Amino acid sequence: VTSPDERRGPSIGHVLIVDDDPTIQRAVQRALTREGWATTIVNNGREAVAALAAKSASFDCVVSDVNMPELDGYGMVEALRAKDDGIPVLLITGEPTLEGAVRAIDLGAVSYLAKPFDQETLAAAVARAARRHGVERVRRRAESYSRELFRDDVEARFARALERSWMAFQPIVNVKDRTIHAYEALLRTDEESLRRTDIFIATAERLAKVELLGRTVRAAVAREAVALPAGVNLFVNLHGLELSDEQLYDAKSALAQFAPQVVLEITERTGIDPATGAARVAMLRKLGYRIAVDDLGAGYAALGALATLEPEVVKLDMSLVRDLDQQPRKRRIVAAITAMCRELGSHVVAEGVENRAELAACLDSGIELIQGYLLAKPARGFTQPSFDAL
Amino acid sequence: VGSTILICDDDPDIRAAMRRTLRGHLVTEAGSPREAMEMMTGREFDAIVCDYSMGADKDGLDLLQLVKVQYPNMVRFLVTGNRALDIVMRAVNEGSVHRYFLKPWDDEKLRAALDIVLHSRHSSGDPA
Hints:
The structure holds 2 protein chains of 2 kinds. Chain A is about 40% helix and about 20% strand. Chain A has helices at about 20-35, 45-55, 75-80, 100-105, 120-165, 195-205, 210-225, 275-285, 300-310, 320, 330-345, 355-365; strands at about 15-20, 35-40, 60-65, 90-95, 110-115, 165-175, 180-190, 235-240, 260-265, 290-295, 315, 345-350, 370. In chain A, the strands form 2 sheets. An 8-stranded mixed β-barrel of chain A has the order 6-7-8-9-10-11-12-13, surrounded by 5 helices. Chain B has 5 helices and 5 strands; from the N terminus they run E-H-E-H-E-H-E-H-E-H. By secondary structure, chain B is of the alpha/beta class. The model of chain B is unreliable at about 125-128 (pLDDT under 50). Chain B has a 5-stranded parallel sheet with strand order 2-1-3-4-5, with helices on both faces. Chains A and B meet through helix 4, strand 5 and helix 5 of A and helix 4 and strand 5 of B.
């Protein structure tokens, strides 16, 4: 390995020249030093791979012959890519061929130039390649740095959120009988940054901790279920990914002790596999749980779930309930869905009912099970709804 | 889940054959560079597979060069029956294509190459 050419003072970068022909070596060197590049010359691909692997190596670009003894230009690029070295390589050849050029593309070489080459063309190609490589290198370094920083932070916040999590309960009222049909358990946390439940859950998804979150929720719900009034059901949300958690099917688990009172709410947001989904739901029923399809009408393909899961309960998304009294078309849709669900043997719950007009429209559409701020906000413990609103 | 792929070729038979090769992916067809550019303004694609000469004012490499500038994250494949050396040299030196295939292409090789390039770009950004 010859030493870098430093005759012209500080260089704009460092290029590795790989060629077994001294005439070409010199021609390439001349073209590059003229532009301010420092150069190092080696005689074949094997020497080049070694030079690039050296700890002190700080090359911006490689200009290499194709045909060389020991290891040719293609072999050299292959060896570099195998080591995940993305340094740009310009190939120069005395006999350009179609196959050679295609191979250069496959290997990710940035140039395939024919000898004799034009000095300006070579210098321009080197400058372009080195610049792009530099930008890419900086970008990757910044990305991996911020990824690590961010991940650390997110993991710590998620752990805190889990530790400071608690369950709120919101009643689902049978407005015809004026009785409490059930309470829905809703995840809450006192960790400020993850207070929004959708973000809390999305964070669990990103950290692959959905099972851990689900287990925590089920254990917390079971602790509170002891105080649940007799004859009242408990709705518990189940994330699609939790369906593959073995603990869910453990008859000795804390929540399973309350299974006959528990309705598991499943959203299709994660996409339930029709084959395994149905089998898993069957296992849950064997334990005594009932199933609700959540958020029907929220834009997920939940209609399919009515067929696959045969739910005991269907919960209409609040987007269908909102302003139901003012939108005749919406009312017809809701009435049709309600009739269909009844035909399929499912109870229908309207979520997010906020005022008397919406409540009246729900009743008109044949829905008797109502959940929403009008009757009660989610709160700690099993609070009484305001039946006065009825 | 398959990737979204735009195929651009002026020959409907070739498009149909390419669609078969790319089964499992979500394929959209364009019959000219102009049509391809219009489709790309409406939605995102993971990759474009295009022909070289399409009887239009732009050739396949012109199109891919435009794609490279406007949609740098898209994977770009050229598939051509033209064996001229200057075309493939232009393809390398302009850095406009990720893979260069000659017609008739090998189904398995093309599918595998597409999977590899799509995957590597997913994990590490633009190799070119």
